[in-house]
Design goal:
Length: 152
C-alpha cells in the first residue's frame, strides 16, 4: 500500500480491532494536523503527509477501518489517537457523513460525495479533487483556523 518513499509504521497484530490506530505519526512531537482515512485512501493521506511534513507541518495519519469500534474504546485511547485540540481531515472516496463525528470543530472532509461518474479511480480522484495536494491544502487551512494552534 505504501507509495514510493513513504513508510508507515508496522501495525501490531490486533490493532485494527480497536477500530482506529496511528498508522504513521508526526516526525516531531504532537501533530499539527491529523489525517484520517481507510482503505485505498490511506495512500492519498500518506502522500499528503509527506507534502505537509516537507513544509514543516507535523502530520499524523490515522487508519480508521471501523469508526464504531473506535468509538467503543476508552476515552484515553481515542484521545491518544485523535488528540482533541488537533485539527483533523478525513480522506474518503465515499460520503463524508460518517466522518463528521471524528473531526471536531476545526476539521473538514476531503472526499467524493458525488456519484454517477464512471472512469478508472485515478481519473475520478484527480477530476473530483481527491488528491494529496488537496488534502494537504485542507490540512493547512484547518491548522490555520484551529484556536490556540501556532506553527512551531
Amino acid at each position: 500500500m505504501n507509495a514510493p518513499g513513504i513508510r508507515a509504521a508496522a501495525v501490531p497484530p490486533g490493532t485494527a480491532a480497536r477500530g482506529g490506530y496511528v498508522l504513521s505519526d508526526a516526525e516531531r512531537g504532537t501533530p499539527d494536523v491529523v489525517l484520517v482515512a481507510d482503505g485505498a485512501e490511506l495512500r492519498t493521506a500518506l502522500e499528503a503527509r509527506r507534502i505537509l511534513q516537507r513544509d514543516g507541518i507535523a502530520t499524523r495519519v490515522v487508519a480508521m477501518p471501523c469508526p464504531k469500534w473506535f468509538d467503543e474504546q476508552a476515552p484515553a485511547y481515542r484521545d491518544a489517537v485523535l488528540p482533541p485540540a488537533t485539527p483533523r481531515i478525513s480522506v474518503a472516496a465515499g460520503t463524508a457523513l460518517g466522518w463528521y463525528q471524528l473531526l471536531g470543530g476545526a476539521g473538514e472532509t476531503v472526499g467524493l460525495d458525488r456519484f454517477g461518474a464512471g472512469a478508472p479511480y485515478r481519473n475520478l480522484y484527480e477530476s473530483r479533487g481527491l488528491t494529496p495536494e488537496r488534502v494537504a491544502a485542507a490540512a493547512r487551512a484547518a491548522a490555520a483556523r484551529a484556536p490556540g494552534r501556532e506553527r512551531r
